[in-house]
Amino acid sequence: MATAIFAGGCFWCMVKPFDSLPGIEKVVSGYTGGSVPNPTYEQVASHTTGHTEAVEITFDPTVISYAQLVEIYWRQTDPTDAAGQFQDRGDSYRPVIFVNSDAQRQIATASKQALAASEQFDQPIVTQIEDAQPFYPAEPEHQEFYRRNPFRYQIEEMGGRSKFIKQHWSN
Fold it and tell me: What residue spans of 3-125 are helical by DSSP H?
């Protein structure tokens, strides 16, 4: 098994796209990149810890590749918005691919360059590629949120993510 860590706005909205794919063992919502060990949701939401909401995906690379996961990741985000994602604003919602090896960095960098070269977007691709930091799972109420709170999840998706995906990634 291998792991991938992606940040693309609210972690509640980043679980579902990966959760049911063949080769995915689990998708965990959590926090990474900050200065406080084991932060709480309230601490991260205060925008004072430096953490970013992210998902950690445990996957079988013989079934689904890291490159495939990166492509799925792009299609969940607005890679031109460094200040957050959709209705979620601030550093804790910034788009980041956290890499845990040179191989992951090469794959993510090549994919980002290919996306930029595609001219699919009028603005620069600003998603960051950073070294993985300690990942802290979020509290239990934040895990599998889309399954346990479908109405609230639907409200979150109405914050612009669904419309953006349809407009920019439908091909």
Answer: 11-19, 41-45, 66-74, 102-117
Compute the distance between CA of residue 132 and CA of residue 130 in angstroms, rounded to an integer.
6
> Smallest Cα–Cα separation from 78: which of 166, 157, 165?
165
Active-site residue (options: 4, 10, 13, 107): 10
Looking at residue 72, what DSSP letter applies? H
Give the span between the Cα atoms of 168 and 32, in whole angstroms: 28
> pLDDT tens-digit profile of 25-64?
999 999 999 999 999 999 999 999 999 999 999 999 999 9
State yes or no: is 10 an active-site residue: yes
pLDDT digits (tens, 9 = 90+) for 7-18: 999 999 999 999
Closest by Cα among 139, 161, 158, 160 to 148: 139
